[in-house]
Design brief:
By secondary structure, the chain is mainly alpha-helical. The chain contains 23 helices and no strands.
Length: 536
């Protein structure tokens, strides 16, 4: 389980910028519009609630990542408390959540670039043309190639892109407030507070998809010299800073809208024609045409920067899967520059496959969001299991009030999955079921070597009531989320909260023993043997 070949050159601010770059990507260009359509002026509250929900998860993983200070830490954490079967299932969830992001961001780049170079996407703006597909492969190859640099240069490139993105976002806020400011918009067509629409905006308005980028620092835990200080600083700090930026953007967007458009169409009827996007359109309306050009450029830089850093962390997740046995051992190969080169190549190959323009491509973004949140659900369970089984174990960063924060984080993560709707869960749970069936079938066929290794199924049975119960609640949930309407939105939320507490109790009951957990932690934290370095 050695990561000896990795370079520990990621400092505190390098990790902070990595997480910020993951949060401030392509989502901020459209997120304010989608959130306003769903929640109107209350969309500011949606951003703050979304930040609070993700902050709970960030606090949980701040402790776990310092206990397992390895790159691709989320994969190793998932094996820690409940063994290999749970670990493998979560590795698959993580793989789906990570490897699909770079091609999504590359597609976003080309969609915006189509304004200058027509012919990259079809008339609908959703499907890549043959020229666009070729350009997407080139862009994906470029960001993968840049990731073959040492981690110090990778983070330097990312930090520059992050500063640019933050500067453009804050500049947009200032200009919109200066050129077109209508504070009365906050009271137009307001009505009473609709909690369902406020909460749905968190999942469906791009809010949660944006904030979950905080995980980048955790995935680079093995490449910093002081993880006990740097990881909590980066994970928590990135969420807090991004929350301020996004709340300011949403406020400036709401007050920049022409009042007549709200009065005529209502908040849900807001729309902007053309690929300029809502923020660039408002800048043009306010007379700041030159800033619209900056936003066009940023619409290329921001998604490309996010795709770049996600390629970095995706390769670390794949590398960790190779170390833990969830993927072929060759995926853990590290080059002389300290780069997991085989994992990077796999990231490119799978990314190209996901670039194929199939009809349900747009739905894939929701699937990614749901899979990402689901991948975090294991964190609160592992944290409490470790507190229960090895309470005296030294923790470089110890989360206060963990028995309150961790259950709250688990409930909130399941709420977010519930808010994405039944169709999204059908995709995610369907993919997991097929993958599990294929794995168990292959394991039964190959009855030798690793196939006979202990699978720890007795530590994994709690997943059945967890996944099955969550799916059934959505089936009986409100029509607005794809259910049959047997339960209202609020009743469904109450059912999810109750299910979460029951599943948490079951998971703690069937966790691994103290000795097994201590042994695994010792393997992560002990003296590492130096493996032979390999290079492409």
């Amino acid at each position: 389980m050695s990561q000896h070949g990795l370079k520990r050159e990621a400092g505190r601010f390098g990790l902070l910028y990595a997480s910020l770059s993951g949060i401030i990507g392509s989502g901020w260009l459209l997120g304010p519009l989608y959130a306003a359509q769903l929640a109107g002026p209350y969309s500011i509250l949606s951003w703050l609630l979304g930040a609070g929900a993700v902050l709970l998860l960030a606090l949980v993983f701040a402790e776990l990542a310092t206990l397992v200070p390895r790159s691709g830490a989320l994969v190793h954490i998932s094996h820690l408390s409940h063994g290999d079967l749970v670990g493998r299932i979560w590795s698959w969830i993580l793989f789906i959540a990570y490897v699909t992001v770079p091609p999504v961001e590359v597609t976003a780049v080309l969609t915006y670039a189509n304004n200058y170079l027509p012919g990259l996407v079809s008339g609908s703006g959703h499907i890549l043309t043959m020229q666009g597909y070729a350009a997407a492969i080139v862009l994906l190859a470029l960001i993968v190639w840049l990731n073959f640099l040492t981690i110090r240069w990778v983070l330097a490139i990312n930090s520059t892109a992050t500063w640019w993105k933050i500067a453009v976002a804050l500049g947009t806020v200032v200009l919109l407030l200066h050129f077109t400011y209508h504070p009365g918009n906050l009271h137009l067509a307001l009505g009473k507070l609709d909690s369902e629409r406020v909460l749905k905006a968190i999942s469906l308005g791009g809010i949660i998809f944006s904030f979950l980028g905080f995980r980048q620092a955790i995935d680079l835990a093995g490449e910093t010299r002081d993880p006990s200080r740097n990881i909590p600083f980066a994970a928590v700090g990135s969420v807090l800073l991004a929350a301020l930026v996004y709340a300011a953007l949403q406020f400036s967007f709401l007050t920049a809208l022409p009042p007549s458009s709200i009065l005529h169409h209502g908040w849900h009827g807001l729309s902007f024609e053309g690929s300029a996007g809502p923020l660039a359109s408002l800048a043009i309306m306010g007379g700041a045409v030159w800033w619209a050009g900056v936003l066009y450029l940023n619409a290329i830089v921001a998604p490309l920067g996010t795709g770049f850093i996600y390629t970095t962390t995706t390769s670390r997740i794949i590398m960790a899967a190779g170390e833990s046995g969830d993927a072929p051992a060759g995926m853990a190969s590290i080059s002389r520059r300290g780069v997991p080169w085989t994992a990077l190549l796999l990231t490119f190959v799978v990314g190209v496959i996901f670039l194929v323009p199939f009809p349900s491509w747009q739905k894939l973004v929701s699937v990614i969001s749901s899979a990402t949140v689901l991948s975090y659900g294991i964190g609160p369970i592992v944290l409490l299991q470790l507190r229960l089984r090895i309470p005296a174990h030294e923790r470089p960063f110890r989360l206060r009030r963990a028995w309150i924060i961790a259950p709250a984080a688990f409930i909130v993560s399941n709420w977010i999955i519930y808010w994405t709707g039944l169709k999204t869960s059908d995709y995610v749970f369907g993919i997991l079921l097929l993958t599990l069936a294929g794995y168990l079938g292959l394991r039964a066929w190959r009855r030798h070597g690793a196939a006979r290794a202990t699978l720890h199924t007795r530590h994994a049975w709690w997943l059945l009531p967890y996944f099955g119960g969550l799916w059934l609640i959505q089936v009986f949930g409100p029509h607005s989320l794809g259910g049959n309407g047997a339960m209202t939105f609020l009743e469904g939320n109450a059912a999810v909260a109750l299910l979460s507490l029951v599943v948490l109790a079951l998971a703690l009951f069937c966790g691994r023993s103290s000795g097994a957990i201590e042994e695994t932690l010792a393997a992560f934290q002990g003296i590492e043997r130096t493996p032979p370095l390999s290079s492409p």
